[in-house]
Write a structure and sequence with these properties.
Elements (H helix, E strand, L loop, with lengths): L41 E2 L40 H4 L5 E2 L10 H8 L6 H9 L5 E3 L4 H18 L4 E4 L18 H12 L7 E5 L12 H21 L3 E6 L8 H10 L10 E4 L7 H15 L6 E5 L34 E5 L19 H8 L1
Parallel strand pairs: 3-4, 4-5, 5-6, 6-7, 7-8, 8-9
Antiparallel strand pairs: 1-2
Helix pairs in contact: 3-9, 4-5, 5-6, 7-8
Length: 381
C-alpha cells in the first residue's frame, strides 16, 4: 500500500500527457521495445546538453488543465532497487499510433520558452511524446464537447487518444487530488455525457485512477456503491463506442496484494467484457515495468474473466524504479520510462503509456499538477 497514483487534478480543460518507455528485462528508461510492431518509430536525441543552472519554472501559459496532485499511500514494504541495467539510458522512441493532443502544459512551456537552455531536452524527450488527456473537473455542461475535441483529433490523425475520466465522488480520499462529482447520481450523469464524446474511433479509457485501489477509506456500503457505479461507467463507455478500450484501476505492484485487488476489481465489473478490457497500473507512480508486468498478470489471473483481458502500464517516470524509502512526492533520482507503444511483445500487456505527464509536479517541486521545468529536465536528462 504505498504511494498512490493520481497526480492530476484539473480546472477547466484537463490535459495531462501520456506516453511510455519500454522496459522488461532491460531498461525502464526511455528506450525502444526489443521487438516492436509499432509503425514508423522515430528516434529522438539521446544525449541532452549540459545541465543549466536551476531556474524558477514559469507558470503554465495557457488555460489548459492543471493535472491533479499525488496521493500519499500507506507504506507497503521496501521496493526493489533498479538494477544497473535498468538505469542505463537508451534512445527514446515515439509510437506513431498513439495520439499527442496539441494542448498541454509542457507544450505551452515549449512554445513560450524557446531560449531556455533546457528547451531542446524537454521538447524532444517529453513534449514530443503522446500522452493521456485528463478530465478531472466536474463540468457536465462542457464535458461532451471537450472529450469530442480529443477523440476527433485522434481520429483525424489516424492515431489512438488516451483519455482519463477522473471525477468519482470522494476522489483521493480527501488528499491532494480531492474533488469530483458531488454524488454518484451526478457522476453517473457526467459519465453519460463523457461517453457521448467518445466518437466511433479507437480510444483508450483509463477509468478513474485510485478509485479501486484507494477505496479502503470508504465504508463497505460506500465501496459497494462506488463499484456499482464504476461497473455501470464501463458499460456506458463501451456501449457508446464499441471500439473504446476501457481499463480499470489495479493500483501498482507496491500496494494491494493481487488477490485483494482482483476481488475489488471483480466487484467493479472489470472481469466482464461488457464493461472492461482489463486493468491499468502504476499511474503517476515509479515502480519498474518488470515488477508491474508480473503484478498485473497476477491480478488478471486472480480476476478471472476471458483471456482477452489485458493490462496497460504507466511508464512515464519509472526509468529508475521506485524510491526505496517509499517517497511519492516528486522523489529525486527518478527518470523517464519507456516510450509509449501499443506493441509491448509481452503477453497480456496491451500498452506502455504515459498517463502522468513527466514534469507535472506531485506538489513538492511545484504546485500540485503544475508543469515544473526543473523537474521535467531532471527526469529527462
Amino acid at each position: 500500500m504505498v504511494v498512490a497514483a493520481s497526480v492530476v487534478v484539473a480546472v477547466g480543460t484537463v490535459t495531462g500527457m501520456m506516453s511510455a518507455l519500454d522496459d522488461t528485462a532491460r531498461s525502464d528508461e526511455a528506450g525502444p521495445p526489443e521487438v516492436t510492431r509499432s509503425p514508423s518509430l522515430e528516434s529522438l536525441p539521446i544525449v541532452p546538453p549540459p545541465s543549466p543552472s536551476v531556474t524558477k519554472s514559469p507558470a503554465p501559459a495557457s488555460p489548459s488543465p492543471s493535472p491533479a496532485s499525488p496521493t500519499p499511500k500507506k507504506k507497503a514494504g521496501p521496493t526493489p532497487s533498479p538494477t544497473a541495467t535498468e538505469r542505463k539510458q537508451q534512445p527514446t522512441v515515439v509510437s506513431a499510433r498513439l495520439y499527442r493532443h496539441p494542448e498541454s502544459q509542457v507544450l505551452a512551456w515549449v512554445r513560450d520558452n524557446a531560449g531556455d537552455p533546457r528547451h531542446a531536452v524537454i521538447e524532444s524527450r517529453i513534449a514530443a511524446q503522446p500522452a493521456a488527456v485528463w478530465f478531472a473537473d466536474f463540468t457536465p455542461a462542457t464535458i461532451t464537447a471537450r472529450v469530442r475535441a480529443v477523440t476527433t483529433g485522434g481520429s483525424a490523425s489516424g492515431r489512438v487518444p488516451v483519455v482519463v475520466p477522473y471525477a468519482i465522488p470522494d476522489r483521493d480520499c480527501g488528499g491532494h487530488s480531492q474533488g469530483g462529482a458531488p454524488d454518484l447520481d451526478a457522476y453517473d450523469a457526467w459519465i453519460d455525457r463523457f461517453a457521448a464524446g467518445l466518437g466511433s474511433g479507437d480510444v483508450i479509457v483509463i477509468l478513474e485512477p485510485d478509485s479501486i485501489a484507494q477505496s479502503e477509506c470508504l465504508s463497505a456500503a460506500e465501496r459497494a456503491d462506488r463499484f456499482a457505479s464504476l461497473a455501470r461507467a464501463g458499460r456506458v463507455l463501451k456501449a457508446a463506442n464499441p471500439k473504446a478500450r476501457v481499463y480499470y484501476d489495479a493500483g501498482h505492484s507496491g500496494w494491494n496484494a493481487p488477490g485483494k485487488q482482483a476481488a475489488w476489481l471483480r466487484q467493479a465489473g472489470a472481469a466482464s467484457t461488457a464493461s472492461s478490457d482489463g486493468v491499468f497500473s502504476n499511474v503517476s507512480n515509479f515502480h519498474a515495468t518488470a515488477a508491474e508486468i508480473a503484478y498485473d498478470r497476477q491480478v488478471l489471473d486472480a480476476l478471472g474473466g476471458p483471456a482477452s483481458l489485458g493490462a496497460v502500464i504507466d511508464t512515464s517516470r519509472n526509468g529508475a524504479g521506485a524510491p526505496t524509502d517509499g517517497e511519492w512526492c516528486d522523489p529525486a533520482g527518478r527518470k523517464l520510462g519507456r516510450a509509449p507503444t501499443l506493441a509491448t511483445e509481452e503477453a497480456r500487456i496491451d500498452a506502455y503509456l504515459w498517463v502522468k505527464l513527466p514534469g507535472e509536479s506531485d506538489g513538492c517541486k511545484g504546485k500540485p499538477g503544475t508543469f515544473t521545468a526543473s523537474y521535467a529536465y531532471d527526469l529527462a536528462r
